[in-house]
Design a protein that fits this description.
The complex is a heterodimer of chains A (338) and B (311). Chain A is 30% helix and 22% strand. By secondary structure, chain A is α/β, with parallel strands linked by helices. Chain A has a domain of 111 residues. In chain B, helix 4 crosses helix 6, helix 7 packs across helix 9 and helix 9 runs antiparallel to helix 11. The longest helix of chain B has 37 residues. Classes of the chains: A alpha/beta (338), B mainly alpha (311). Chain B: It is found in: Cell membrane. Chain B: This is Peptide ABC transporter permease.
């Protein structure tokens, strides 16, 4: 078993809601991330899925220390990095980098590709000596499959897929151990998505990277991930290997999510059953008591509104179904396993 | 089950561009804008006019050898223009003190151009700094800067400069520049602040933070180059306005004073005799209008070229 490179313990991020002009009084909080724990092993890919507004991107920002965690710990190789600042934080940044969702806004339009990819070296001069930087940038362009001659071009001269490659090259520049990909392909065409995904997989093999891969496209997550975590309204509802999640989901939300995946087979369309959830996702400022999913769950009972289900391996289940799931009534739904 | 590996035969992403194998010259947004501008007649005309005006302001002696302050009342009192003499002292006629109007129009350009450029540069720098601080840091810094901006914004530009200039016993070009900068920086601050707030939220700023970039680097390498375009546009357009304002103040007798030569002063002295000598009013007023128009046209053209939405 590989060692844990990143360990997240009970991570919480609340955005305070204030009232009053001069003396701000806190009247509540948007609970964007509300007590999440998981670990990322060296060299593995952890996929995080969930619908819009469930806190996936906030989780990425907190892990990157772009937002301060309200409470909880982020342990990188055993050291808590969530409260670091100054030089110590800058040093940790070398190890954790990020690839952004939108390749059109994540590259500074006024900088050349060489400047964009070379910027990490300027910020961390110890990584590449001044004379070697141009060479280092060209090597990175080569690694991500772009022509090293393009070093003097500007981002607007590239297509979306090429821009995302530039973004990946920038993330790789500091030779990080972890790359957090925040929906890295959702802004791209399907054919280009495949190229970028394959590039990410190839780089993982080459540099021994660990990925945290945030997405809402379930098939892409299944393709790239070793393990998958499902988020709903700031909580992790189920986490396990891709086989455990995709074929043996025990949480009703995961089952509903999976039933919405389009199947590229017209004959199978008839036989499968879709779970249609009623209502909208509740406001994270005022989440339901007990289980957060109970307002939309067909299995909800009295107990669900009183007791918060813990993310734990259910004792009643065996085999691949026995993985961490935050439900009081976990069971594998036969028709969900397509 | 969808299988991505089947669709993922790696087509070289650079195929379309690889065809153009020869090294291509890099083109920044700035050079793209310049490329656009050169083809716009409005830009070419206004730029040529402004260039001419700047040459006149720097070296008025190239255009006339007549002393603009020398008056001969017996010879030249309100002598009408003699259009057959190009670039001569009597080309535009003589004013109520027997001074060559052509020479005065030429020498008057300096006051207008100096005031216009200095006030624009001054307000842009001040407004740029305050707008950047307010927009980037937000919080109480933003609150303080924005409220002070609001207070200054509430003072009418003309009335405020009347009050400030009244405090000077002898007024020069620099006292007018001071008064206009003191009151004019607010607009630039607001434009810059809004622009910085927009750019600050872009992903590339987050990316720079994630790399560990410091505040200075983020401000000057990432935010400033992307936030400056609207400020440049507003500055170019308002330059014409400041020239008109200087003339207005001089016309009202509170701006520049004799012996400084300014179109506003000449317009003021000519208006009393508009029926007998309309040409004495027409030429300085015409020059003023052309100058203001040239700067406004330039601002328009620059805005079209820099506006990313039209690109």
């Amino acid at each position: 078993m590989a060692e844990n490179i990143l360990e997240v313990k009970d991570l919480v991020k609340h955005y305070p809601l204030t009232q009053g002009v001069l003396f701000k009084k806190q009247v509540g909080a948007v609970k964007a991330v509300d007590g999440i724990s998981f670990e990322l092993k060296k060299g593995e890919t952890l996929g995080i899925v969930g619908e819009s507004g469930c806190g996936k991107s906030t989780l990425a920002k907190v892990l990157m220390n772009l937002e301060r965690a309200t409470s909880g710990q982020v342990l990188f190789k055993g050291e808590d990095i969530s409260q670091l600042s100054g030089g110590a934080l800058k040093a940790v940044r070398r190890n954790i980098q990020m690839v952004f969702q939108d390749p059109y806004t994540s590259l500074n339009p006024r900088m050349t590709v060489g400047d964009i990819i070379g910027e990490p070296f300027e910020i961390h001069p110890e990584v590449a000596p001044k004379g070697d930087r141009r060479k280092a940038v060209q090597d990175l362009l080569d690694v991500v499959g772009l022509n090293p001659e393009y070093i003097n071009r500007y981002p607007h001269q590239f297509s979306g897929g090429q821009r995302q490659r530039i973004g990946i090259a920038r993330g790789l520049a500091l030779k990080p151990e972890i790359i957090i990909c925040d929906e890295p392909v959702s802004a791209l065409d399907v054919s280009v998505q495949a190229q970028v995904i394959n590039l990410l997989e190839q780089l993982q093999g080459e540099f021994g990277l660990s990925y945290m891969f945030i997405a809402h496209d379930l098939s892409i997550v299944r393709h790239i991930s070793d393990r998958v975590g499902v988020m709903y309204l700031g909580k992790m509802v189920e986490i396990g290997s891709d086989e455990q999640i995709y074929d043996n989901a025990t949480h009703p939300y995961t089952q509903a999510l999976l039933s919405a995946v389009p199947v590229p087979d017209p004959t199978a369309r008839e036989s499968r059953e879709r779970i249609i959830l009623s209502g909208d996702i509740p406001s994270p400022a005022n989440p339901p008591s007990g289980c957060r999913f109970r307002t939309r769950c067909w299995k909800a009972q009295e107990r669900c509104s009183e007791e918060i289900p813990l993310l734990a391996i259910p004792t009643t289940l065996e085999g691949p179904a026995a993985h961490e799931s935050a439900c009081h009534f976990p069971e594998v739904r036969e028709s969900a396993a397509a | 089950m969808p299988d991505l590996t089947k669709t993922a035969e790696e087509t070289p992403a650079q195929a379309p561009v690889a065809a153009a194998a020869k090294p291509e010259k890099a083109r920044s947004l700035g050079s793209d804008a310049w490329h656009d501008l050169r083809r716009k007649p409005i830009f070419v005309i206004s730029a040529l006019l402004i260039l001419l005006l700047i040459v006149i302001a720097v070296a008025p002696g190239l255009f006339t050898s007549v002393d603009p302050r020398a008056g001969d009342l017996r010879e030249h009192f309100h002598t009408p223009p003699n259009y057959s003499h190009f670039f001569e002292g009597d080309w535009f006629g003589y004013d109520g003190q027997g001074r060559s109007i052509y020479a005065r129009v030429i020498y008057g350009a300096r006051a207008s151009v100096v005031v216009g450029i200095c006030v624009t540069v001054g307000t842009t720098i001040l407004g740029g700094i305050f707008g950047m601080l307010a927009g980037y840091f937000g919080g109480w810094i933003d609150t303080i800067i924005s409220r002070v901006t609001d207070i200054f914004f509430g003072i009418p530009l003309l009335l405020g400069s009347l009050v400030i200039l009244n405090a000077f016993t002898s007024r020069t070009i620099w006292s007018v520049v001071f008064a206009l900068i003191t009151l004019g920086w607010t607009q630039m601050t607001r434009v810059m602040r809004g622009s910085v707030i927009t750019v600050k939220q872009a992903d590339f700023v987050t990316a720079a933070k994630a790399l560990g970039a410091g505040t200075g680097r983020i401000m000057f390498k990432h935010i400033l180059p992307n936030a400056i375009a609207p400020v440049i546009v507003v500055a170019t357009i308002s330059l014409g306005g400041y020239i008109a304002l200087e003339a207005t103040l001089s016309f009202l007798g509170i701006g520049l004073q004799d012996p400084t030569i300014s179109w506003g002063i000449d317009i003021n002295s000519a208006q009393k005799l508009i029926r007998t000598a309309p040409f004495a009013l027409f030429f300085p007023a015409g020059m003023l209008s052309i100058t203001v128009l040239a700067f406004i046209m330039l601002g328009d053209a620059v805005r079209d070229a820099l506006d990313p939405k039209l690109r």
